[in-house]
Every structure is written in C-alpha cells, then in structure tokens.
Amino acid sequence: MNFISTRGGEKVTGAQAIVKGLAEDGGLFVPEKFPQVTREELEGMLSMSYPERAAAIIGRYLDEYDGGELLSALEAAYSKFEGDPAPLVKIEENIFMLELWHGPTCAFKDMALTVLPYLLRKGCDLCGIKDTVLILVATSGDTGKAALEGFKDAEGVKIMVFYPDDGVSKMQKLQMCTQEGSNVDVLAVKGNFDDCQSAVKQIFSSEECAKQLAQKHVILSSANSINFGRLVPQIAYYFSAYLDMVSGGQIEMGEQIDFTVPTGNFGNILAAYYAKKMGLPIRRLHCASNLNNVLTDFLSQGVYDIHRPFYKTTSPSMDILISSNLERLLFEICGRDSARTAALMQSLKDKGEYKVTDEERARIAETFDGGFANEDEVVETIYDLFLDTGYTMDTHTGCAMKVVNDWFYKNKKDTIKMVVVSTANPYKFPQDVLYAVTGNDVKDSFKGIKRLHAATAMAVPKSLSALRDKPVRFTKTVKRENLFEEILQFVQS
C-alpha cells in the first residue's frame, strides 16, 4: 500500500508516511486506495480480541509491517489499559457510548498514541533511518499528555509538546507539566491552539529548519492526527464497536448504524469515515462541536470561515478553528483532485476561508451533518443524562450527546442505533462535570475530584489522583515565533 499527498505528486510507503508525518508540499498523507473489508471478513473478526481486530485493520494499510510483530505491539499497548480498551455501554434503547478513555492518560488519544511509538520506531527501521527523531506536538489538551506518555524514554526519540498558555484544563496542564522522562519537553505558547498548530506546521514545512536539524542528525516527525500513524489505529475502534453491537445482539450483521463524534481537529470523525470507505455499514456521521462551531457551519453551508470569535470553553480539546484533518475529507469529496485540494488550502491560508461547490457539498451531506452545544447546553445535557440514567460523561461527550438529542428530536421516527463516541474520563474535567451534576462550583481540581466521586461513586483513575503529589517540571511560556529557538536548544540538551 502506497500513500500520496492531498496536495500533489509525492508517493511514499506507509513507513515513510509515518516517519515524515507531513508531506513535503504541506499536504497530508492518504492511502492510495481504501482496502475493503467484506461481510465474511467482518464475521471472522467477531471472535477476535481488540488487539487482533486492530491488527487486522491496521495491517491492511501498513502491509510492509510484519503482522505477528504488529499484533504483539498492539497487545503490549492495550495491556496498559484498564480492562477492555474500547467498551460499549448501553445508555438508552437506541443509544450506546463507546468509551475510549480507559488508557494510561484517560483520553481517547491513548488508543493511537500507545501504538504510535512502535509504528514510528519500526518505520525508521524499514526506512533505514539512524538519526534522532524529534516529535513535535501541538495540543489542545489530551494529545500532549498521551504523546508524552507514549514516547517517554523511547530510544532514538525526543518529544516536544506545545500547548496554548490559557487553553487547556487545569488537570490537562498538570498531566503534561509533571511528565516524567529524560527525552521530553513541554512549553506553553502565548495564543490559542490554532497558533500552536500553525507554528508547528510552519516548522515542518521550512527547508531552513530541516537543514539546521539535519546538521545535528535530527529529523522531524509528528504525533498529531496529521500523521497517518495516529489516524490508522483510530479506524479500528469503529470496526470493533460495530462488531460488539453484532455480538451483543443489538444489530444484525450488515445493518447500518450511526456514530456521533465530538471533534475539533476532525481526526476522530475522519477515522469513522475511513471505516465507512472500507465497507463498515455506517449510515451517517454526526459531527459535534462546542461554541467554536466552524465545522457545524461548514457542514451545513459549504463555507469554511475562520473569521469568527474564538471561545475558551469547558471542552478545550475542541477549542479549534482550523481543523487540519478536514483536508483529507476535502481530498475525497473533490474526487481526489490534489490541485483543487491545494487551492482550497491556499485560500484558507491567504483569506481565512474557502467555499466548496454545490456538488462537493452534496457529497459531504451524503454522510455528514453537524451540530453544536453552547456552555449552558453542555451543563444541562450532562445533568439530564446523569439524572435519568446515573451515567456520568465529560464535557466533550456532553457536546456530542446534545447533538444526538437534537437529531432524535428532529427525526422522531428514526430508529437507527446511535453510537456516541465518549472521548475523555469525566475526572479530567472534574470542576466542570461536578458543576453540571451538582451545581457546586469549586476552584481546586482535586477537591473537584473528591466531590465528583462522592456525587457519582464513579472510580477515580489512579493516574489522575496521583498528580497531586507529583513535582511540576515544566513552567516555561514562549511566543510562537520563538519555537524553533527552543527546539534547537532542546536538541542540543
């Protein structure tokens, strides 16, 4: 299987795509074609464990990786999770939660970032690369910690994480700034997530930066979802959720289902779209946003416009206005026309907006629709579900549940089975979830955890409660234009 850039000519292997992270023309790597999974193959996966299912999906894209070795790596990665890596929980008659937060850092990013170190290390071997790999990560909260945990003390790898100085939750910040490991660095950046992400992409695209790093025998790679190695493990949990629905007698094999996905950078929902392209019986994908609802507007109007207020919300992982992975969807709905995709991206860079044609918009509408929740609606949605069912969800999942409720309110006769993708443990946002569930407002995160536990009796992850006693290692804040200086200093350290 070869990979191509969304913006033009470059053709590479899967290993090269993972090591490079971003194509040289600034585009994102996509598979040359989508491998198909037949009904018979799906039936054969029913009896498989989660790592076996993941190996079956990932191996279809990364066919130069040894299958047995890949399975061993996946088994090792998911052994770090508490129980089933991606359990499905029935909430209401036709509504199910796909819980993706049972990993080491309590967020869905663990599903891919426990696996990516193996994919990258093996990719370097397959490409004959001996240089140090420097991983740059822009994070709106969860990716940073999951990447740090995945790559800490990894041989031949260094990792730098950049987060917006006032754009992550207190618990997310504490998770990152107390990170252990001799090969890690964490920096706050003045600005929002889009500032972090665009600065990192600029460094990736700079020949001068690459040249200076090459002199020090360092190459750059990414652990953000712009890297296909981050994306491909995420495709697997959509297959696994479907198979669990069949095994549990909720649906018949071949019956279609819907997914609702809270997303900011469009990676998580794009993985669902890729699963559909591979033949998984998905009817519709519902894209859930918070007040930063640029995706909602794009999906309904066909215009992507970042000229709008930026809101800091209680769902900070979705406080994003430039959704990088949308480029991969554009490439598909433009008929895989790289020149057209590049032109749209250039328009976004130059004018802060682009518009798709009516035909392209119709192709999007065949599968996607969008909705959003404001801050009050998130609170009400979390409270209502807890009151009705006793189920506690985080703020991002609260956005998704609001979109689900709106869908069924507007489509009262719809009997589709709906899977809501739950992306983070509620204890990652203890004060906000506590306020939603009880109306109590506390300033301290650990008091929030204590009171939320008292209110819900939900188990507190040890990795979060242990943060109280961990020393803070990283406190530096920098301007976005100074990132490369910091990178050079870190490389030399």
TrEMBL record:
Question: Where does the record place the Tryptophan synthase beta chain-like PALP domain?
Answer: 91-337
Q: Which Gene3D superfamilies match?
A: 3.40.50.1100, Threonine synthase, N-terminal domain (3.90.1380.10)
GO cellular component: a single term = cytoplasm
Q: Which SUPFAM superfamilies match?
A: Tryptophan synthase beta subunit-like PLP-dependent enzymes
EC number(s) recorded for this UniProt protein: 4.2.3.1
- Threonine synthase N-terminal domain residues: 3-78
Give the matching InterPro entries.
Thr_synth_N, Thr_synth_N_sf, Thr_synthase-like, TrpB-like_PALP, TrpB-like_PALP_sf
Q: Which GO terms describe its biological process?
A: threonine biosynthetic process
Q: Could you tell me one molecular function GO term of this UniProt entry?
A: threonine synthase activity
Domain of life, source organism = Bacteria
N6-(pyridoxal phosphate)lysine: modified positions: 109
Q: Which chain positions lie within coiled-coil regions?
A: none
**Known PANTHER family for this protein?**
THREONINE SYNTHASE-LIKE 1 (PTHR43515)
What family classification does the UniProt entry report for this protein? Answer: Belongs to the threonine synthase family.
Protein name from the UniProt record: Threonine synthase
